[in-house]
Amino acid sequence: FKVSTVSTSPIDGQKPGTSGLRKKVKVFKQPNYLENFVQATFNALTAQKVKGATLVVSGDGRYYSKDAVQIIIKMAAANGVRSVWVGKNTLLSTPAVSAVIRERSGADGSKATGAFILTASHNPGGPTEDFGIKYNMENGGPAPESITDKIYENTKTIKEYPIADDLPNVDISTIGVTSFEGPDGKFDVEVFDSADDYVKLMKSIFDFESIRKLLSSPKFTFCYDALHGVAGAYAHRIFVEELGAQESALLNCTPKEDFGGGHPDPNLTYAKELVARMGLSKSDTGGEPPEFGAAADGDADRNMILGKRFFVTPSDSVAIIAANAIGAIPYFSSGLKGVARSMPTSAALDVVAKSLNLKFFEVPTGWKFFGNLMDAGMCSVCGEESFGTGSDHIREKDGIWAVLAWMSILAHKNKGNIDGNAKLVSVEDIVRQHWATYGRHYYTRYDYENVDAGKAKELMEHLVKLQSSIPEVNKIVKGIRSHVANVASADEFEYKDPVDGSISKHQGIRYLFEDGSRLVFRLSGTGSEGATIRLYIEQYEKDASKTGRESQEALSPLVDLALKLSKMEEFTGRSAPTVIT
Ligand code: VG1
Ligand code: CO
Predict the structure, then answer these.
(1) Domain 440-580 adopts which CATH fold?
(2) Separation of 299 CA from ligand 2 center, angstroms?
């Protein structure tokens, strides 16, 4: 192939957000839009990460992925990349990409040093919906801010990019290596099975035999909803083929370009079918719900965990996994190096860390902040309130891993109950037992999606201004709800990375109350239109006799306070959030 140089000019708005660049497909389809971003990324990397390197390119298979993959292959070839690895049909979950970078060896024994992940995660897909792209590094984790800042700077000055435009499109539906000859020598495209490397890694972490025993017991019933995302490609292999679940346990497990027209976000609002099956909705599907249910987002890095008629808050889920990991999961048998959560995630994990005497870290929202801690051997298990849970087996959150972690805990607790007539310890039993031991963090998140960006900014500025006088804040608080505790402090969260000393500012506005309650306000960094305001509300209850309340009811005074303090309706014109989790 030949390399030609295309002249281009900068395009506005290519700043990577919390997790890469996410825009409407029609934005990505503009001339040079994808190309500029890809070249800006190549130019942000050191030469040896490009010339002669091996890169992974794949994603959740959403609409436009098949075109994007061919463009990136041609640009990689022109930039002197030696090999591009593509999961069959462009499918690789985000955690599988991370695993492939860390674990896989190519046909020629090479290792990958990075990846372009093609996903907009939980955002809808299709011609009128979202596409996305992000770059991951050789540790398998998202590029740190130092790199994403450089990428953004490059997008503002880009003048040209090289492309091998005479390279034929590669058949990405067939496993195998296609070789080309270019000015720098050989260039290979290797198409491989999307699940093999990931399945192998999961088998090295969990005791599949004990999970299989649980899943094949007639007493244990299970349901998994991939929401038409890429998780389906792994669910068949792992839950059905490896662990013996029934085929009928899988819902929406054939990956689709448009996620069946749905919103591939595993929460009580969007995972409707699963929620109904688990006996958690008004339109109950009838019949006895399964013992255990779970869902994933489009790129399978998120998870929702459900018991029979029971919802597990993600903040509780990571705390429960941390509290039970050592006995239940072979990977952790020699202990946990430490645990970490994102700032808005509830303090349930803090209580476990304290009681088990574990190192603990609080980082800004977004998985990239956990990577440094893990690389430095300081953290084993981490999680976010946004349905993200994971460990240092890779450098992304991992939806299927979280389900296997829960299955392991269930299998461990039920070792003596699987055979015979004994009743199984349920998901709900495990959570209630956890609350009785550690106390409960009542928790909810209100999302106001697609609000006017200017108004959202004004609301945030209003909240920052309020913070300058705590006595003033408390006067307002008492005026709204006299029984709520006093605000002890308020700030904008700032993080200093303990490994490399880098500082991240403006990571969310916090109001911290004397009784441990918290209100947190943030603007989303993953949306593609307007602004999304996230309001996180948390209250700690230590008294075991008071941990069984309905969450929305327990939190209603704090919710009321948060809405009035922030003047939510006044700024946004919204009397209710779009989504409550
Ligand atoms: C959201 C979540 C954050 C998560 C991020 C990426 O970001 O809040 O916790 O890490 O999505 O997840 P934001 O900036 O919109 O609040 V995913 O599954 O979209 O890669
Ligand atoms: Co995701």
Answers:
(1) TATA-Binding Protein (3.30.310)
(2) 5
Report the nearest atom of ligand 1 relative to the CA of 385: 9
CATH code of domain 198-438: 3.40.120.10
Closest CA to 23 of 10, 33, 36: 33
The edge-to-edge listing of strands for the beta sheet with 222-225 is 250-251, 222-225, 292-296, 303-307, 310-312
Pocket test for ligand 1, best of 15, 19, 387, 450 (most atoms within 8 A of CB): 19
Q: Where in the chain is the domain with CATH 3.40.120.10?
A: 4-193, 198-438
Q: Which of 19, 65, 83, 121 is catalytic?
A: 121
Find the angle CA(544)-CA(266)-CA(564) to the nearest 5 degrees: 65
Q: What is the homologous superfamily of the domain 4-193 according to CATH?
A: Alpha-D-Glucose-1,6-Bisphosphate, subunit A, domain 3 (3.40.120.10)
Q: Please give the average per-residue pLDDT across 125-141, as a whole number.
A: 96
Active site residue 121: yes
pTM of structure: 0.93
> Is the dihedral angle over the CA atoms 322, 324, 328, 332 positive or is it negative?
positive
**Segments of the chain assigned to CATH 3.30.310.50:** 440-580
* Segment 222-237, tens digit of pLDDT: 999 999 999 999 999 9
Q: Give every CB contact of residue 352 below 8 A, 6+ residues apart in sequence.
A: 319, 322, 323, 339, 358, 438
- C-alpha–C-alpha distance, residues 358 and 339, integer Å: 7
Sequence-distant (≥ 6) Cβ neighbours of residue 419 within 8 angstroms: 217
Please state the atom number of ligand 1 nearest to the C-alpha of residue 94.
20
Helix (H, G, I), strand (E, B) or coil at 27: helix
Residue for token pair 């909810």: 444
- The protein residue with its alpha carbon nearest to ligand 1, atom 19, reads 121
Is pLDDT at 284 greater than 70 in this prediction? no
ipTM score assigned to the predicted complex: 0.97
Give pLDDT, residue 473.
Answer: 84
How high is the pLDDT of residue 285?
A: 61
Atom 5 of ligand 1 has which residue's CA nearest to it? 366
